[in-house]
């Protein structure tokens, strides 16, 4: 809200509050005089009543303005987050995929995910079912999605044996986040490195990209929840129904990336949990 809009809103709120106060003053004074109260007492009492009503109107107008401003900031934040998300999914070499938690239909997939499946770089996966793209059993994939929904860091990291476009089978670890408000899962796939220096370097870059992506997604959800909470507080103070139902089930669980369990020569350091 720019200064001009703020001044205009303040002026309009003042006019409404002043008009309401004057009307209340005249109405109360008229009723008291008709009831036989002395003019002085009637004017004093009605003046206090009109002033009180004006203050209530002024506060109510101000709270509504704050709610609208918070909604505007929330909308801007969501647009900015969506642009960041689209940029990550259109450029990232990490194996990211975003899909519906119920139908398993893909919404977005990163170039790294397409490369992992050894598909042409111009492949469009939006609208396809994830189990068909990965070549895995639907029941197995649904159990993995259920594990992601639980979000329990003590549970073993889910893994599936997927098939690439050329029929090559690969065991991949999955780490994801479930967003109940959208009923969407954002997942990242990890393929254990082989004894190949170039492959190990690519996987390290993917790990860093994934970490930035995870932190960005968590900051996005945290900021949106904060803005929604502020809007709800203002609505509560204004005596209005809550605008948003907030879910705090998401957390910033630490991702255990499998690449850390291998050295640069490709030899294994320890078992993958």
Automatic annotation (TrEMBL):
Top-level taxon in the UniProt lineage: Bacteria
TM spans (from-to): 12-36, 42-59
Alphabetized UniProt keyword annotations: Membrane, Transmembrane, Transmembrane helix
Protein name: PAS domain-containing protein
Organism: Thalassobacterium sedimentorum
